[in-house]
Design a protein that fits this description.
The chain contains six helices and ten strands; from the N terminus they run H-H-E-H-E-H-E-E-H-E-E-E-E-H-E-E. It is α/β, with parallel strands linked by helices and about 200 residues long. It has one domain: Rossmann fold (3-Layer(aba) Sandwich). It is globular, with a radius of gyration of 16 Å.
Length: about 200
């Protein structure tokens, strides 16, 4: 089985359903527009964006993931050091990319700032509590970081560590640490929001 550098099983991600992510992006930045999608994976969200009329550049460090992206320019690279030398109408930081440890998040946010003055983020809802589930095991919560493992149909699993922000002030501070300012919620219950450069 193909596995991305972060341990994500490629075949599992190919089976995940769309969850209306494209419509949430459209609520933040109307198509047509140019988008830099950081951490695109196999292109589940990319497909939605292309259908809506966006011009998408999909970035992922896993060539095995990018093999499945269609109808979009792809770039195989680490997000932390990415510099394409061009600007986009918006940068997307989706999935679990905002819940990483502080230094990595700061680097992700700096990469976003090199490419756009608008950032669309999906993260865990503020004060998220892990649900009881047969597909999710929580090993512990330490300093606001949830450690556990998610189990997929077919027997695959993926360990994770995700930062949960206790309140909106913590989230805003994490953004500011990377040079961004919270703008507005797109969908608060799902943890989607928009940000702009702190200097604006």
């Amino acid at each position: 089985m193909s596995v991305a550098p972060d341990g994500s099983p490629v075949e599992v991600y190919l089976r995940l359903p769309e969850r209306g992510e494209g419509d949430l992006v459209a609520a933040a930045v109307r198509p047509p527009a140019s988008l830099l999608e950081l951490g695109s994976g196999v292109g589940r969200v990319t497909r939605q964006l292309v259908r809506l009329g966006y011009d998408v550049v999909a970035v992922d460090e896993s060539p095995e993931m990018l093999e499945h992206v269609r109808d979009a320019e792809t770039v195989c690279a680490r997000i932390e050091t990415l510099d394409l030398g061009r600007a986009f109408d918006a940068v997307l930081l989706l999935s679990n990319l905002f819940t990483v440890e502080d230094e990595q998040r700061r680097l992700f946010l700096e990469t976003a700032a090199r490419h756009s003055d608008l950032l669309v983020v999906e993260t865990l809802p503020v004060a998220w509590q892990p649900p009881e589930s047969e597909t999710l095991r929580i090993d512990g919560i330490e300093d606001g970081v949830v450690h556990g493992e998610v189990f997929y149909d077919g027997g695959e699993s993926h360990a994770f560590a995700m930062r949960v922000f206790a309140d909106e002030d913590e989230l805003v501070a994490a953004l500011a640490d990377g040079g961004w300012r919270f703008d507005c919620w797109i969908e608060r219950e799902r943890g989607w929001f928009r940000a702009v450069p702190a200097r604006s």
